[in-house]
Structure formats: C-alpha cells, structure tokens
C-alpha cells in the first residue's frame, strides 16, 4: 500500500468487484471521513469533520486518479476535468485516513460543493491556500469517442502532411517503409492490426526524428479469393450467365469496396499514411508497371513457356505457386506397394529369375502415368525369394527387406545383392497396360528411410520424376483434366474418375485383380492443400508460363546476403527457400488478374511476344487498365506492324500469379515515386512472407535490376490466444480488433479499450516470435495505460499556473533532487530512442513503464507533492519543480507518441501554457540534453539515498501496521550507522539552503534523526558504503493544520497558532492561489 506525503492529497480507490471501506481515526480535533462503496455503482456516503465543514455526498471512480504504486506513494489528488476548489482531502492510504472534501456528485460534473449552511469563515481557513492540480485533461480516456475526435483533428489540420512538408523543407532524409499489400477480400484480423501498428510506430518515430517518412498503404486486388467471393454472392442462374468481363467488373467492385472498409479500419487504429494516394494492384498505372517487369524479364530470357508438372488445384481449376499451398496436419493417403514384373535384364544377379520391382507410392491414381522406375545408383538392392510366391522374386533395397517382409506378412529370403547402377537399363512390364518401361537412375531423393528404395516415376506428375524423365527422354504423360478427372489416356476403365476420390479405389482394385498389389495401407504425411479452397492439390503437367529462377539464382542469393534480416534467422530461411526452389510458375487459369500479354498463332500454337507487342499492350493497359486485354479484339491489341496478321493470331487467356502482382510493387510504387527510396529501407511482414512477398519481390527485382528491393527485412510472428492456441472459429477464441477498440455487444465483458491500448499491447510483446492476447492480457495492458495517463494528468494539473517564459528556473539553479530526475529522464530518452531505432519496441515499452512507475510514481512525484501543494505559488521550491514537470511533458509526450498517439496528442491539446507547435508531432522529439547527465559523487549519493528511502518505507509500513503511527507524517525516522561515509552523505541532506534537498521530504516524514554508532541487529547494507538501521518513532511537536507535518514551531505564531514555520509565511504573506469551484 502506498502512502501520502501530506494532507492535501485525495485518494479515491477504484477497486473493482469488492466493497471499498475507508475509515480514519479522529486526530487533533479533526474528524476524518468515512467512505463506503459497494462496488456496484450505488450511492456512497462520505462525511467530513465539522472543523472543515465540507462533505462528500457521493463517491465515484469516474473522477479518480492514482499515481504510483507500492509502499512509496500512490495517491495523487483527485481532480476533475474542470478546476475544483477546496479539494484538500487529506488521505494517507497507509491508514486510509484524511478528510474527504470534494462533493463528488458535482465533481463528476466538473465542480465541487461546500457543505450547505456553512459560511467560508466557518470552514478550515487554510483550505484555499493549498495549491491543488487543475486541468481539463480527463482521467478517463473515453477512447471510443475521444480517439475519433483526435483523428478528425489530425485530418482537418493535415498534421501528417504538414509534418512531411516540414521535414522535407528542413532537408530530412527519405525513409521508406514499403507496405506489403493485404488482400482485399474481407475484414481485418489481429494479425493485420499488429502488422499495421508496428509499421505505424516506426513511421511516426522516423517522422518525429525529422525524416521524410511517407507511408503509402497498398492493397492486393486480383486473384481467386476475390473471384470466389463474387461467385458466393451470386445465385446459380447468375453464375451461369457470368461473362469474363462481368466477372471482372464484379470482382473490381468487391475489391474497391473492401479496400475502403479496410482503410477506415486502419485509420481507426491511428495508422497514418497517404490513403488518397494509396496503391492498388488493380490501378492501370500499377498494372502497366507490372507488365514492364514481365517484359524486362521476358526480354532477358527469364520467362519461358513449357509443359511441366505444377501444383494444380482441381477445386480451383488453376495452377498454384508454392506460396499458395498449405500443409494441414493429419492428412492420410492410401499408399500401395506394387510388383512391377521385369521384362528384360542385363544384371547377372537376375539371370534366369522371375523377378519384380517392388515400388511404393502414396498416389495410386498416378499408376496409369507410370513410365519408369527410378533407383539410386549407390544403394544396395536385394533379390528376395518371396514365401508362398512360387518362383517369383522381389527386388527391394537391402535395408528395407525386413520392414517390407513384416508389412506384407511374407518371409523374404535374400538370394542375391546388387548395386542400383546394375539395374539401369532393365525394363519392366506395366501391370495394367501393354507397355514396357525402363529402370532409370534417379537422384538423392531416393533413400531407404521408407518404402522400398525403388521409386514409381510418372514424369507428368512430379518434379523429380519430370527431371529424370527429361534426362532419359521420356514422354510427359498426364492423363488428368482441369477438374482432376482421368482422361481417355488412362484407359476406358478409368476415364472420368476423380483422382482424389474414386480413381484410387478403381486402380487399387485393378492392381489386385492383376496380382500386382502387394499391400495397401493408410499413410499419414504432409500433403499440399489449396490455401483458398482448403482442398487437396495434385501435381499435373500442363502448358504454363515460368520464370526461370536458375538464370539468376546466384544473384538472388548474393542479394540476400546484402540485406539485414531481423531476426537473423530469417536469412537462413529465405536462403534455403531460394536455393532449393524450382522455376516459378507465374501463369494462372483465371479471369480476374493481370493478363500475360502473349499472342498465339492459330495454325501452330507458337507464342508471339516481342518488344513491340509488349510496349503496345503496356501503353493500352496504362490508358484503359487490364480490361483492355479482355475487351478489345486482337487487331486493336497488336502494334501497327502486326495488325495484318491479326486473323491468324489469338490472345492468351492466362493471368499472372498474384505473387507476381505484389512482387512487382517495388516497380509500381517504390521506384516510381520521388518521395520513396528504392531499394526501400524496410519491408515488415509476418514470417510466412519468406516464401511469399519477400521472395517474389526479391526475384523480380534481382531479375530486372540485379539487387534486392529492400535494405532491411523485419518479420513478426502470429497472434495466438492467451493459452497459445491458434485462433479459429471452431475454438471460439477469435478476438476482433474492432471489439478491442469499440467494445463488444456486452461492454462489461468486452469493454472499449480504444486504439491506444491495442497499440500499447503491440509494443509490449516480443513480436519476433508468436504473441499472445486475450481478456486478461488486455485488462493488464489497459491498467498500464491508465497509470501512464494518470501520471500525465497529474503533471498537467500541477502546471496550471506555470508560465515557461517567466517562471522557468535554469538548470544550474535546480535542486539536486530535480537534477537527478532529469538525469533519469535523459537516460530513458536515450534508451528509448536506441530501441526505437533497432525496432525493439518491447524494450521501449519496458523502459517507459519502469520510468513511470519506479522513477516517477514511486519516487519523484511522491516526493514533490509537498512542494507543489504547500509551498507558495511563486516560491522557488514550487517553480523549480514545475520547471522539471514542464521538461517532463516536452520529452515524455513526443517519446510515447509513436506508440500512444491519441494519449500524447490529447495531453498536448491540454497543455496549460502556450506552445509554438499545435500538435505534439509537429513539436518533434525533444533533443537529449547531455548536460543533464549526472556522474560522479552527486549521482552516487542520490542512488544511495534511494536505497535508504526504500528501507525507510519498509520500516514505516511495519510501524503503521503496528499502529505506532498512522500517516507517515506522524513519524520521526531514526537512522543509525557506523559508516562514516554514509553518515557524511546523509548529514549533507539533513537541511538544505533550497528547502528541497532534505531527507524529511525524501522520506515524507516530519523529522529525521541521524545517529552515529553501531547499527545493531536488522541492518541494511549498501555495497561499498556501509550498513545502517532505520527505525520509526512518533514525531515530536504539534501537527500543522495546513500541511500536517509535525513541528515544534506550531503554536509559536500568534496570528496563526495552528501553522508551522513553513506554512505561516505562505498564509501571512501572499496566499497561494485558491482553487475556486466552477
């Protein structure tokens, strides 16, 4: 429990869910107040002593504030949005005692009331001489209403635009964080929110540092997901009558509508950017730039058309890139072991034997496309006589004989062994067709980890199979259509069967009928699914357009090494993905996309692409958009020199992979805009983009310009629930960022925390890995926000009568306690800036949080309340403290602005003095003043004093519990030490010329007694200084009716016998400014 320094503090507990009961004893003729709260928002009664004649008719947490925690000091004066008078409640929360003097029913409306029937002269005559905080800055953020007001104010005053102009005119360097475009097909989730907030924190910090940090938000607009959304919105009749152009029109409308909605959501997060100049991959200029990238790659020989197996989605009826696949756990395939009887053999070990090659596959439907069996030349194979198999033998890898024997339930006796290289050139009979095929040598993909060590090879249905087939000149057989049905090439028995369904059943049955099936079993493994339809995909050879990555792979790997990857593990990940990847299939069989600008000869199918045709199409697209390709006849799409051949040409129907769309953004946006840097200074996305946007952007940029499109790549993890589980509808654990900001249907359960609390959470987590969020985490985060807001409110309230032009005290004249907190401030400022620069926002959060709680609430703001409330309004003690508080705001508000822009701006708009900057952002980051850094003896002494203070707080708390004292002001602190060094340091602060740097104010007690000699038992050690023991005694003298300090001087002044020597001159001379109720 924290303590109060003097009676001019009012604490109003906001404890939730339990009754709050505060009872105080009578002391020296003053009756204390009693407060009762049932925690349900019901009426609370507070009564005050007759001496002050003030009453608290109600209690309300709406106007409460708590500054600080723990045993040091927590409670600042409660003050409402409007200045209020006579708020001289004196409450020590160590004993919950004091005078509750604010009528809170009226305080909630912005004012206070005096007890009725009492004249001012009958009240405590000193209440109006206590200087309490006054500010319009509300303790309640009311974020649901206030944040949109601030955002509207930013827009009306063009703060973002003005800041950019200001920085540019001052010669600020460009800083470009290039926005990876979210997909325009639905509402935003917490992953989007975290991503955009991280970007905004970085951009705002760079803007505050004077950089020209323009942020251009972007959207990915083409592709199948949007087509599916359109189809889902149509009735079946409408779908049948859908033409390519009507599909494109509906898809465009859907994308633009979604972009508008998402943009408003991003703005509500407080994210700044050039929304009016945003980039959209459907914009004609962007599409033209994308086609220029394609054209450059084509002319450089990096684009080609070929018949190759690609990932094919039967459910979407299109080819897919690797980045469009996902691998859900738990997939089970029907795997089979099949005997392929040898036809001819050249191996001596096989002469005169009836033998079969034992192959294993998890795709029975590819058996009709089998054209070879591949072996590893280095693996040893065994020829095994099979029990119950007559004279038949099986050939299997020696290491797998035992496991195969167990699986098929037959003993296998090895009769001979041979190397894989000896099997090359043998031929075998296909078990279902009248054809023979060769045994070939495969690559390292053939192992003895599973299966049989012999690989069924279908060049039309696998990458490795295709490569081996090319080597041996095998045909590419792919008897599967776009819908995933077997064609007539598979034979009449299987034609029309679905390869992912009944085709497997029929083929397995046929193999069993022919005596070729050794075993069928379910096999669980990773298997690719279409990330959009969530259905299995297949490998299928089709005519597609490819980017030949091998042609520039070395340059791409070199470019990767030139980039800074954060975290560092990112470089290994993208390097492995890039070095292992095959050629990039960039064509898609969809309508909603950027067309691949290729013409084909009708008679031969030859593709026609020239520099001239490319330029003409690009110019048309720049003018009319990519719809021109689908709308205009071939003749209009051809340049003048080829128009005569229009009748023999047809235009291609393929569109580009959407990763080519977004992967060209460095050309469509970054290098195209003068205010942006190319390469961009930073790309920031989720870690899944190593295989997506990071890689597609890298490949296109390296292919065209020979360099990476970014200098630094920063990745973040995924958002999980509080238990570390992935969010999903089935688990019911999805948290909508909109509900965090605006509140849910049940505002008690899901309160409206506002965007700043969401942003504070983003800054608090280590985003380099997966992060957690949930109700309890949000509640903790909001409490941290509330404490910081309370601190800012306290500082603002105590500057209501401060004029920086005339009242500021020079640094050299400041008391040592003030210089010490400025030292702490500039240290924090340097740490925060360094962590902002290195993108370690959780360290920024921790540093600011520690400074607010430990250095401000528990220390400095605890100590200075006496100076602020009790000293004269024009006194040095008060003005010096106000000077420091003003420095605090100048530094702290811009410092927190990147993370908490609404809080910082709201506070700035409530500054009680004139400032040259209308916005905290236009003010910029305060310059770290090196002269404020302390060193040497002064710093060491103050650190020692803080250690002593911690021990004093501890023993004072014990004394309070033992009822030796109530308020800490009833205490005299006795410190005994046999350390000459420590005694000298403490003696130095027994009294001070400035009335500030004294132990009694540091300890918030009435008196301090230093004694030399053995400390006895229960000592506290300060390393390298010595030991001491702190004890508590009752303070001597009488209590001052104004400041509640005990002093021998109380009673010595004839005109004001209830006052001490500190308060008498304030009251006798120029009274402190009274707080008059509104």
TrEMBL record:
<dbReference type="InterPro" id="IPR009008">
    <property type="entry name" value="Val/Leu/Ile-tRNA-synth_edit"/>
</dbReference>
<dbReference type="InterPro" id="IPR014729">
    <property type="entry name" value="Rossmann-like_a/b/a_fold"/>
</dbReference>
<dbReference type="GO" id="GO:0004822">
    <property type="term" value="F:isoleucine-tRNA ligase activity"/>
</dbReference>
<dbReference type="GO" id="GO:0005739">
    <property type="term" value="C:mitochondrion"/>
</dbReference>
<dbReference type="Pfam" id="PF08264">
    <property type="entry name" value="Anticodon_1"/>
</dbReference>
<keyword id="KW-0030">Aminoacyl-tRNA synthetase</keyword>
<protein>
    <recommendedName>
        <fullName>isoleucine--tRNA ligase</fullName>
        <ecNumber>6.1.1.5</ecNumber>
    </recommendedName>
</protein>
<keyword id="KW-0862">Zinc</keyword>
<comment type="similarity">
    <text>Belongs to the class-I aminoacyl-tRNA synthetase family.</text>
</comment>
<keyword id="KW-0479">Metal-binding</keyword>
<dbReference type="GO" id="GO:0005524">
    <property type="term" value="F:ATP binding"/>
</dbReference>
<dbReference type="GO" id="GO:0000049">
    <property type="term" value="F:tRNA binding"/>
</dbReference>
<dbReference type="Pfam" id="PF06827">
    <property type="entry name" value="zf-FPG_IleRS"/>
</dbReference>
<keyword id="KW-0547">Nucleotide-binding</keyword>
<dbReference type="InterPro" id="IPR013155">
    <property type="entry name" value="M/V/L/I-tRNA-synth_anticd-bd"/>
</dbReference>
<dbReference type="InterPro" id="IPR009080">
    <property type="entry name" value="tRNAsynth_Ia_anticodon-bd"/>
</dbReference>
<dbReference type="InterPro" id="IPR002301">
    <property type="entry name" value="Ile-tRNA-ligase"/>
</dbReference>
<dbReference type="GO" id="GO:0009791">
    <property type="term" value="P:post-embryonic development"/>
</dbReference>
<dbReference type="Pfam" id="PF00133">
    <property type="entry name" value="tRNA-synt_1"/>
</dbReference>
<dbReference type="InterPro" id="IPR010663">
    <property type="entry name" value="Znf_FPG/IleRS"/>
</dbReference>
<dbReference type="GO" id="GO:0048608">
    <property type="term" value="P:reproductive structure development"/>
</dbReference>
<dbReference type="GO" id="GO:0002161">
    <property type="term" value="F:aminoacyl-tRNA deacylase activity"/>
</dbReference>
<feature type="domain" description="Methionyl/Valyl/Leucyl/Isoleucyl-tRNA synthetase anticodon-binding">
    <location>
        <begin position="818"/>
        <end position="975"/>
    </location>
</feature>
<dbReference type="InterPro" id="IPR001412">
    <property type="entry name" value="aa-tRNA-synth_I_CS"/>
</dbReference>
<dbReference type="InterPro" id="IPR002300">
    <property type="entry name" value="aa-tRNA-synth_Ia"/>
</dbReference>
<feature type="domain" description="Zinc finger FPG/IleRS-type">
    <location>
        <begin position="1037"/>
        <end position="1063"/>
    </location>
</feature>
<dbReference type="InterPro" id="IPR050081">
    <property type="entry name" value="Ile-tRNA_ligase"/>
</dbReference>
<dbReference type="GO" id="GO:0006428">
    <property type="term" value="P:isoleucyl-tRNA aminoacylation"/>
</dbReference>
<keyword id="KW-0436">Ligase</keyword>
<dbReference type="GO" id="GO:0032543">
    <property type="term" value="P:mitochondrial translation"/>
</dbReference>
<dbReference type="InterPro" id="IPR033708">
    <property type="entry name" value="Anticodon_Ile_BEm"/>
</dbReference>
<feature type="domain" description="Aminoacyl-tRNA synthetase class Ia">
    <location>
        <begin position="150"/>
        <end position="771"/>
    </location>
</feature>
<keyword id="KW-0648">Protein biosynthesis</keyword>
<dbReference type="GO" id="GO:0046872">
    <property type="term" value="F:metal ion binding"/>
</dbReference>
<keyword id="KW-0067">ATP-binding</keyword>
<dbReference type="InterPro" id="IPR023585">
    <property type="entry name" value="Ile-tRNA-ligase_type1"/>
</dbReference>
């Amino acid at each position: 429990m924290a303590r109060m320094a003097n009676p001019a503090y009012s604490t109003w507990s906001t404890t939730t869910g339990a009754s709050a009961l505060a009872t105080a004893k009578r002391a020296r003729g003053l009756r204390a107040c009693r407060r009762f709260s049932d925690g349900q928002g019901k009426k609370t009664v507070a009564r005050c002593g007759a001496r002050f004649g003030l009453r608290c008719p109600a209690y309300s947490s709406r106007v409460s504030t708590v500054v600080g925690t723990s045993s040091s000091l927590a409670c600042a004066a409660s003050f409402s949005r409007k200045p209020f008078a006579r708020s001289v409640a004196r409450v020590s929360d160590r004993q919950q005692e004091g005078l509750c003097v604010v009528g809170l029913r009226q305080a909630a409306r912005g004012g206070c009331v005096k007890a009725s029937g009492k004249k001012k002269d009958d009240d405590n005559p000193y209440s109006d001489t206590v200087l309490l905080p006054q500010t319009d800055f509300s303790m309640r953020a009311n974020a649901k209403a206030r944040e949109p007001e601030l955002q509207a104010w930013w827009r009306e005053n063009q703060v973002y635009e003005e800041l950019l102009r200001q920085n540019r005119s001052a010669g600020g360097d460009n800083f470009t964080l290039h926005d990876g475009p979210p997909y325009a097909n639905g509402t935003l989730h917490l992953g989007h929110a975290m991503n955009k907030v991280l970007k905004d924190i970085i951009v705002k910090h760079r803007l505050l540092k004077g950089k020209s940090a323009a942020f251009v938000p972007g959207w990915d607009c083409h592709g199948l997901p949007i087509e599916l959304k359109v189809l889902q919105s149509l009735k079946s009749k409408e779908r049948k009558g859908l033409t390519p152009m009507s599909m494109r029109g509906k898809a465009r409308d859907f994308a633009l509508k979604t972009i508008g909605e998402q943009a408003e959501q991003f703005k509500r997060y407080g994210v700044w950017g050039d929304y009016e100049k945003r980039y959209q991959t459907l914009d004609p200029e962007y599409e033209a730039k994308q086609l220029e990238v394609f054209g450059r790659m084509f002319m450089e020989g990096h684009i080609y058309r070929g018949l190759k197996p690609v990932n094919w989605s039967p459910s979407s009826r299109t080819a897919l890139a690797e980045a469009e696949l996902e691998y859900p756990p738990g997939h089970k395939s029907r795997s089979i072991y099949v005997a392929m009887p040898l036809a001819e053999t050249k191996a001596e070990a096989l002469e005169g034997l009836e033998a079969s090659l034992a192959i294993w596959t998890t795709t029975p439907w590819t058996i009709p496309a089998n054209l070879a069996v591949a072996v590893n030349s280095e693996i040893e194979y065994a020829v095994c006589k099979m029990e119950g198999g007559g004279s038949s033998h099986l050939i299997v890898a020696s290491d797998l004989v035992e496991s195969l024997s167990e699986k098929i339930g037959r003993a296998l006796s090895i009769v001979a062994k041979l190397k894989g290289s000896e099997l090359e050139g043998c031929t075998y009979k296909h078990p279902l067709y009248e054809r023979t095929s060769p045994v070939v040598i495969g690559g390292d993909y053939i192992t003895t980890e599973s299966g049989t060590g012999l690989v069924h090879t279908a060049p039309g249905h696998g990458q490795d199979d295709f490569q081996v087939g090319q080597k041996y000149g095998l045909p590419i057989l792919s008897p599967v259509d776009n819908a995933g049905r077997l064609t007539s090439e598979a034979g009449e028995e299987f034609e029309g069967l679905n390869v992912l369904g009944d085709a497997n059943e029929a083929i397995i049955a046929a193999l069993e009928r022919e005596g070729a099936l050794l075993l069928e079993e379910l096999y669980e493994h990773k298997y690719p699914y279409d990330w959009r339809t969530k259905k299995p995909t297949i490998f299928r050879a089709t005519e597609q357009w490819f980017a030949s990555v091998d042609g520039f792979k070395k340059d791409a790997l070199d470019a990767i090494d030139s980039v800074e990857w954060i975290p560092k593990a990112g470089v290994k990940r993208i390097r492995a993905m890039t070095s292992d990847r095959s050629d990039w299939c960039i064509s898609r069989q969809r309508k909603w996309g950027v067309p691949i600008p290729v013409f084909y000869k009708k008679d031969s199918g030859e593709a026609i692409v020239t520099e001239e045709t490319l330029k003409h199409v690009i110019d048309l697209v720049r003018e009319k958009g990519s719809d021109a390709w689908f709308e205009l006849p071939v003749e209009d799409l051809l340049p003048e020199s080829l128009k005569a051949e229009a009748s023999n040409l047809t235009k291609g129907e393929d569109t580009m992979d959407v990763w080519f769309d977004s992967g060209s953004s460095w050309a469509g946006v970054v290098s195209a805009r003068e205010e942006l840097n190319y390469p961009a200074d930073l790309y920031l996305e989720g870690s899944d983009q190593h295989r997506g946007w990071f890689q597609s952007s890298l490949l296109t940029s390296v292919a065209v310009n020979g360099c990476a499109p970014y200098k630094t790549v920063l990745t973040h993890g995924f958002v999980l629930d509080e238990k570390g589980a992935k969010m999903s509808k089935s688990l019911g654990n999805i948290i909508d960022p909109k509900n965090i900001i605006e509140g849910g249907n049940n505002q008690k359960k899901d309160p409206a925390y506002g965007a700043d609390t969401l942003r504070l959470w983003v800054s608090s987590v280590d985003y380099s890995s997966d992060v957690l969020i949930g109700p309890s985490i949000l509640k903790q985060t909001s409490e941290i926000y509330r404490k910081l807001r309370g601190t800012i409110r306290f500082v603002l309230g105590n500057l209501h009568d401060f004029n920086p032009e005339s009242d500021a005290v020079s640094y050299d004249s400041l008391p040592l306690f003030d210089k010490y907190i400025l030292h702490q401030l500039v240290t924090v400022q340097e740490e925060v800036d360094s962590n902002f620069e290195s993108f370690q926002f959780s360290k920024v959060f921790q540093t600011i949080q520690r400074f607010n709680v430990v250095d401000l609430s528990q220390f400095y703001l605890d100590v200075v309340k006496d100076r602020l409330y009790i000293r004269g309004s024009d006194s040095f003690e008060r003005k010096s403290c106000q000077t420091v508080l003003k420095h605090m705001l100048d530094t702290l508000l811009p410092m927190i602005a990147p993370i908490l822009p609404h809080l910082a701006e709201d506070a700035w708009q409530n500054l009680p003095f004139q400032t040259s900057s209308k916005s905290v952002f236009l003010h910029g980051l305060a310059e770290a003043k090196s002269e404020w850094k302390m060193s040497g003896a002064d710093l060491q002494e103050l650190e020692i004093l803080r250690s002593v203070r911690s021990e004093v707080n501890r023993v004072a708390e014990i004394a309070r519990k033992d009822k030796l004292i109530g308020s800490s002001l009833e205490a005299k602190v006795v410190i005994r030490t046999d350390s000459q060094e420590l005694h000298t340091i403490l003696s130095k602060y027994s009294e001070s010329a400035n009335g500030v740097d004294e132990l009694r104010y540091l300890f918030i007690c009435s008196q301090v007694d230093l004694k030399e000699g053995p400390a006895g038992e229960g000592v506290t050690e300060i390393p390298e200084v010595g030991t001491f023991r702190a004890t508590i005694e009752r303070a001597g003298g009488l209590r001052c009716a104004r400041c509640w300090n005990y002093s021998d001087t109380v009673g010595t002044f004839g005109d004001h016998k209830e006052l001490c020597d500190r308060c008498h001159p304030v009251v006798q001379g120029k009274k402190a400014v009274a707080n008059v109720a509104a």
